[in-house]
Design a protein that fits this description.
The complex is a heterotrimer of chains A (325), B (350) and C (297).
Chain A (H helix, E strand, L loop, with lengths): L4 E12 L2 E13 L4 E5 L6 H9 L7 E8 L2 E2 L5 H7 L4 E4 L13 H13 L3 H14 L5 H4 L9 H13 L5 E5 L7 H18 L2 E6 L2 H7 L2 E6 L2 E7 H6 L4 H9 L49 E2 L5 E2 L11
Parallel strand pairs in A: 3-8, 3-9, 6-7, 7-8
Antiparallel strand pairs in A: 1-2, 1-4, 4-5, 9-10, 10-12, 11-12
Chain B lengths: L11 H30 L5 H6 L1 H5 L1 H11 L5 H13 L13 H36 L4 H15 L2 H15 L23 H8 L2 H38 L2 H8 L4 H35 L8 H11 L2 H29 L7
Chain C lengths: L5 H4 L4 H11 L3 H23 L30 H37 L1 H16 L2 H12 L3 H29 L1 H8 L4 H37 L11 H10 L4 H29 L13
Helix pairs in contact in C: 2-11, 3-4, 3-11, 4-5, 4-7, 4-9, 4-11, 5-7, 6-7, 7-9, 8-9, 9-10, 9-11, 10-11
Classes of the chains: A alpha/beta (325), B mainly alpha (350), C mainly alpha (297).
Chain lengths: 325, 350, 297
């Protein structure tokens, strides 16, 4: 089956006070229809930038290279008009913090219907009906009344549901969820994830799920891509990658997760050091200063992301974890 | 999860908030008149003699009657209370310069200034907000830098000087506008409804009078607006910049809305609260400006009246003006509070 | 917008503050402002050497248009307008500095006390500022000068009354929020006395916004004094004060040079101070205003 979205060689440079800095250094991935495509990584790994580039929402002065093929056109080289037709209508986005991603002074109804009217040309009454329908789908009580309410009247979890409703209003084919549950309580998290799953199954929606939380990843994502310092270090089916990580970084992330059944005095493991800032990227493999398996060549050669059997891709020539079953 | 999201407008907490604010404002208004009262007491001289003029010398009985009426021989707080009593009956006293009831004076001069002030504020808002948004959207580009200099110029200009220069250039040299007063000498104003010549003419359908009044109005209104245009441009710019990088603006773009919709509907609305605050300031600036400018344009308004009252120490008139100032203060601030509540629904819970 | 946001912005050590103020000098607007203000200060100092005529000397050459002998023409008493404009700087500039310094001192002290001790003191100071803010500036100033008698000294007093509340408010707000700021509490917990905390931690962060306000107020002071003199409530003739000269200019409308040049003087001085103040605000708080630097995404 042909991929829905095919990103090739995506490279992004952002303007800073000291010139252009590379924050995304050549990224390739493919998203299939109906798939939940997970992108994992710490802050600064470039995961959010990669999707902002798709929607043309990078800050002014950003330099973008590569291609992102969707429905026959290259998203990275679309004109402004064409881009607007994609945003919200073909590809929609849910942002991380529901407390700040909804306009505080506009009614929920307005925020739901304004792009419905713009993209689909619906009449006001039809738009209103669709809005109520959407709120029902995301399980907001009293949807008709909610249309006239303002975001601050809702809890964080409900605001995120509203944000999801807004994103899905025009029935996009891809939903980008950028850390959708990070700002929410764990119990509320589960509700949101269940909602996303249900909606996906109903409509064949593809979801690009961005999160640093591997626990969330394991429960929803079909496909997992791990990013570090602007590059993909490992990708494959979620179950496979999490059960048998082959990149030292992925392994480190997993090991750092506190295990609920671990001994009480078991130490919390963490990866020594911290992720590099884009301006201070180590030469060769960006992870090598923190990697316990690093060899001499890791400091000079940038590892290529290559197939490593079983639809897995890996960017580590050393591949130290392969022996482990 | 409570059903029933609809908040009745206005909500109870908001109404209570407004009521509290109104009370505080009224208290402040009273304070203003009291301060004015105290200041007038610092003036040496005999108010009775000053007020009655010639009669004071000839007729001691009249002087005594005056003293008793205004309680001049009693202590200060009592005088003030007496003043308030008179006020409640609508008696604001007699002006020494015009020898008319202060109430009549105010009724005549306030509409003239109001006409000027409102026009000026409208011009200032229209231009100031537009330029401010433009500046913010083209941040750090040439447009922005030029507008920065222009707006700094606007708030640096002495209004009275601008009036002089404007009058010289546009009236004396170019003849584009008439020189002084509210209407040309031969033109009679429309029947009195509000006292504002433009509004009255419009209501009476006298479009020639309307045109004439507008011609006289335009230059002083623009001169008065200059400072506020500068102020509003700057404040709108910073308000918009505060808002423009917020998540919800990015989310609006992500919905695929055109940029002009995002700016005008989403950004501007979020930036309105501080702009409204400046609006209140703008009113105060206009009041200040009228004092300086009305004499140059021979505009018979409260500014001139206030000035003459202050310099001739016409106490009842001064008190009348301070009352006017207090009322304007209350009305403007209260309107700002209400507007806040309308624009920002989160305020309704305050 | 509120004082609560300020501590984070102005949480700067003394060392870094020098750096950020230093960067203000690099902006073109600041340079223009400095040059202009500097020029006027030099004029004010050296005017006896620069001015071609005695500002008070009357002559028979009445109401002459600008020429090579009288650069700005002469006024109704035959006095040289150019010299009078130059000498006006000796009034406006020092008075403006004096005014603003006094306002900062009085207002800042009152505000600091109000913010630090709170309670009744705070209430009283706040009501007083409310009252002053309620009056449109010129009406209050007018009222004061009218009550005390029109003179330059009384005009200065009136403007002082109008200016001090802004500083009281700013300092009070900053003192309150900084007093609650974590790092100040930490200092106190470590044993530093309240006074030390006040001086070392609070003052440097208060200095920034106060400095910005003061620089901008220099311009406002010049404007307000000129306005009062224009109305006849400030300096009295024959003192060559810019505002009163513009006033005379309105009476001799066709002789445009009499009112225009003094007004230009006012404009250029106020512009200079505003350029400086604006650039200063940029340097101390680049996010808010017209910062030349690009904001890091």
């Amino acid at each position: 089956m042909k991929s829905l979205l095919s990103v090739q060689g995506l490279r992004v440079q952002l303007p800073t006070a000291s010139g252009l800095v590379t924050v995304l250094d050549g990224v390739d991935y493919e998203v299939e229809p109906g798939q939940v495509f997970g992108i994992a990584g710490e802050s600064g790994s470039g995961k959010t930038i990669s999707v902002l580039a798709l929607l043309g929402l990078l800050p002014e002065g950003a330099v973008v290279e590569g291609s992102a093929s969707y429905a026959g056109s290259d998203l990275l080289h679309l004109g402004r008009r064409a881009m607007r037709d994609v945003r919200g209508k073909e590809i929609a986005m849910v942002f991380q913090d529901p407390l700040t991603s909804l306009h505080p002074m506009m009614t929920v109804g307005r925020q739901l219907t304004e792009h419905l009217v713009y993209h689909l040309g619906l009449k006001a009454s039809d738009a209103r009906d669709r809005a109520i329908e959407l709120l029902e789908e995301v399980r907001i009580p009293d949807p008709a009344g909610a249309l006239h309410a303002f975001p601050h009247q809702f809890s964080g979890g409900m605001r995120q549901r509203i944000a999801i409703a807004i994103a899905l209003a025009c029935r996009p084919r891809i939903l980008i969820a950028d850390e959708p549950t990070t700002a929410l309580d764990v119990t509320v998290q589960a509700g949101i994830l269940r909602l996303l799953d249900r909606l996906r199954q109903q409509s064949g929606l593809s979801v690009i799920m961005i999160t640093h939380d591997l626990g969330v990843m394991s429960s929803v994502a079909d496909w997992l891509t791990v990013m570090y310092a602007g590059r993909i270090v490992e990708s494959g089916s979620t179950a496979d990658v999490l059960r048998r990580p082959r990149h030292p970084y992925t392994a480190g992330l997993l090991a750092a997760l506190p295990h609920p059944e671990a001994a009480e005095d078991a130490p919390l493991l963490s990866i020594p050091g911290s992720p590099p800032s884009p301006q201070a990227r180590p030469a060769g493999c960006a992870f090598h200063p923190r990697c316990q398996y690093a060899v001499a060549s890791c400091a000079t050669d940038v590892p290529e992301l290559i197939g490593a059997g079983d639809s897995r891709r890996l960017a580590c020539p050393v591949d130290p974890l392969l022996v482990r079953a | 999860m409570k059903p029933g999201w609809r908040l009745p407008l206005p909500s109870r907490p908001f109404v209570r908030f407004l009521a509290r604010r109104l009370a505080a404002l009224i208290l402040l208004g009273v304070g203003i008149t009291f301060v004015a009262f105290v200041l007038t007491e610092m003036v040496p001289g005999d108010p009775a003699a000053a007020n009655l003029g010639q009669r004071a010398i000839a007729d001691p009985a009249a002087v005594q009657a005056f003293r008793e009426k205004y309680g001049l021989d009693k202590p200060l707080p009592v005088q003030y209370v007496l003043y308030l009593e008179h006020l409640a009956q609508g008696d604001l006293g007699l002006s020494e310069q015009t020898h008319r009831a202060v109430r009549t004076d105010l009724a005549e001069y306030i509409p003239a200034t109001a006409e000027l002030a409102v026009t000026s504020i409208l011009i200032a808002f229209a231009l100031g907000i537009t330029l401010g948004v433009l500046s913010a959207v083209r941040r750090n580009k040439l447009t922005d830098q030029v507008l920065r200099v222009i707006s700094l110029g606007g708030i640096s200009m002495p209004t009275f000087w601008l009036a002089l220069v404007a009058l010289y250039v546009f009236f004396f040299k170019l003849g584009w506008v008439p020189g002084s007063g509210r209407l040309d000498p031969g033109v009679l104003p429309a029947p009195h409804v509000t006292g504002m010549y433009t509004v009255d003419a419009l209501l009476a359908g006298q479009f020639d009078v309307l045109g004439n009044a507008l011609q006289h109005l335009i230059l002083p209104a623009c001169v008065l607006a200059a400072y506020n245009i500068g102020l509003l441009t700057r404040f709108t710019r910073s308000a918009v910049l505060e808002v423009i990088n917020n998540d919800y603006i990015q989310a609006a773009r992500a919905k695929g809305l055109p940029e002009h919709t995002v700016i005008l509907r989403h950004v501007l609305r979020a930036a309105l609260p501080p702009i409204i605050t400046v609006g209140g300031l703008a009113f105060a600036n206009v009041m200040t400006g009228t004092v300086l400018v009305e004499s140059i344009f021979a505009w018979p308004g409260i500014g001139q009246y206030a000035f003459h009252s202050a310099t001739t120490l016409d106490l009842p008139a001064i008190m009348g003006v301070s009352l006017f100032v207090a009322v304007v203060y209350i009305v403007v601030n209260f309107t700002v509070d209400i507007l806040y509540g309308i624009v920002d629904p989160r305020m309704r819970l305050a | 917008m509120s004082a609560q946001q300020l501590p984070l912005r102005f949480r700067i050590s003394l060392r870094r503050r020098a750096g950020t103020i230093g960067s203000a000098w690099q902006q073109p607007l600041a340079i223009v402002g400095m040059v202009l203000a500097g020029a006027w200060i030099l004029v004010a100092i050296f005017v006896p050497l620069i001015a071609p005529y005695d500002p008070l000397a009357q002559s028979s050459h009445l109401l002459l248009a600008p020429s090579s002998t009288h650069l700005f023409g002469t006024d109704e008493l035959g006095r040289d307008v150019f010299s009078r404009v130059l000498w006006g700087s000796r009034l406006s500039l020092p008075l403006a500095f004096l005014l603003v310094s006094a306002a900062v001192l009085i207002g800042g002290t009152l505000g600091g006390i109000a913010g630090y001790f709170g309670g009744l003191v705070d209430e009283v100071v706040m009501r007083a500022t409310d009252l002053v803010f309620a009056f449109p500036t010129i009406i209050l100033a007018m009222a004061v000068t009218a009550a005390l008698g029109p003179s330059l000294r009384n005009a200065v007093l009136a403007v002082l009354i109008v200016f001090w509340p802004s500083y009281a408010r700013v300092v009070r707000g900053l003192v309150q929020s900084l007093g609650q700021a974590d790092y100040v509490s930490a200092t106190r917990l470590l044993g530093a006395s309240s006074a030390r905390a006040l001086v070392v931690d609070v003052l440097p962060n208060v200095a920034g916004p106060v400095l910005v306000l003061a620089t901008l107020d220099l311009g406002n002071a010049v404007l307000l004094l000129a306005s009062l003199s224009f109305l006849g409530l400030g300096s009295q003739p024959p003192t060559p004060e810019w505002g009163s000269m513009v006033n005379t200019g309105t009476q001799f409308f066709e002789r445009w040079w009499m009112g225009t040049f003094p007004g230009f003087a006012i404009l250029s001085v106020v512009l200079a101070f505003n350029f400086l103040g604006d650039s200063l605000r940029d340097a101390l708080d680049p996010r808010s205003s017209w910062a030349v630097r690009e904001r890091k995404p």
